[in-house]
Specification:
Elements: H1 18-24, H2 28-41, E1 45-51, E2 61-67, H3 70-86, E3 93-95, E4 102-107, E5 110-116, H4 117-123, H5 125-128, E6 134-135
Parallel strand pairs: 2-5
Antiparallel strand pairs: 1-2, 1-6, 3-4, 4-5
Helix pairs in contact: 2-3
Length: 137
């Protein structure tokens, strides 16, 4: 079995190491830039970036934006996910896409909150996290 490289770590093993994988994936800041670019390209409004580093074990950044209708929000999420996947940035989970009122997208250490405008005002995540530093575009 060793001669056929069936053991992990055997001489013929060409699997990437954790270090190789991490250097090939985008950093948190690069992911934020790509995500914000996609949101703006799809006419997402009032993008806010919350720097959660050291404050949350869930993510390094929260990105909050909204659309003018539930269809618009769904469109932003769908197109963003497809375009980012082409760039090697994969979404590991999505919630709320069917309704389009509040879509939560998990990009590992970046969490994206896409709201329908009135819903964003109701939940007021920016107010909830008012003490968190914001990154200005």
């Amino acid at each position: 079995m060793e001669e056929n490289s069936l053991y992990a770590g055997s001489a013929g093993d060409t699997s990437p190491s954790i270090e190789d994988i991490e250097t090939k994936t985008a950093s948190s800041e690069e992911r934020v830039q790509q995500i914000v670019s996609e949101i703006l390209e799809n006419k997402g409004e009032q993008v806010v970036i919350l720097d959660m580093r050291g404050l949350s074990s869930l993510a390094d950044f929260f990105i909050i934006s909204h659309g003018r209708s539930t269809r618009h929000v769904q469109g932003i999420a769908d197109k963003m996910r497809r375009n980012l996947r082409k760039k090697g940035i994969k979404c590991s989970g999505v919630e709320g896409e069917q309704e389009g009122r509040w879509i939560l997208m998990d990009y590992r250490d970046v969490i994206v909150h896409l709201f329908y405008e009135p819903v964003r005002g109701f939940y007021d995540l920016e107010g909830l996290w008012s003490e968190v530093p914001r990154i200005i575009l």
